[in-house]
Amino acid sequence: MHCPFCRYADSRVTDSRTSEDGSAIRRRRQCPECGKRFTTSETASLTVIKRSGVTEPFSREKIVSGVGKACQGRPVSDADLAVLAQQVEEIIRSSGAAQVEAHEIGLAILEPLRALDEVAFMRFASVYQGWESLEDFEAAISVLRASSDIQSEGSKG
């Protein structure tokens, strides 16, 4: 790490701390040449491979924007969307891969969105999974009902 003051090619780490959300490490450094201190922030990069083959950095904002469209008119707050985007990022990062296909991000969105709002889930899934008929919607509703029945039976016991 070059010193931003004197451009010396090395520095010594004096303190390291994890950010509040755990996505970055903040390091205090000191230059052995000029003695000045500075802070760096380190994050693990996560790259998304789009269908076209183009790569771009992972963006929580894109998740919030895309899912936000499915949540229009639903009782879902901006804070709820931010939490969902964080959950999706955690799911993706837990795979340990530095690159992930856009399709995998869509799949990672489905379960947290279903838990947040079933109507928004149906909207998102219908576009994301390319549903073409009423049968596709009926099949998804049947799965939702079955899982709701299982959950309500489990809470009675």
UniProtKB/TrEMBL annotation:
Kindly state a single biological-process term from the GO annotations of this entry: negative regulation of DNA-templated transcription
Q: Which PROSITE patterns match?
A: ATP_CONE
Q: Which InterPro entries match?
A: ATP-cone_dom, NrdR-like_N, RNR_NrdR-like
Keywords for the protein's UniProt record, in alphabetical order: ATP-binding, DNA-binding, Nucleotide-binding, Repressor, Transcription, Transcription regulation
Q: Which residues form the ATP-cone domain?
A: 46-136
Q: Please name the GO terms that the record assigns under molecular function.
A: ATP binding; DNA binding; zinc ion binding
Q: Which HAMAP family match?
A: NrdR
Database matches in PANTHER family: TRANSCRIPTIONAL REPRESSOR NRDR
**What's the protein called, per UniProt?**
Transcriptional regulator NrdR
Protein species of origin: freshwater metagenome
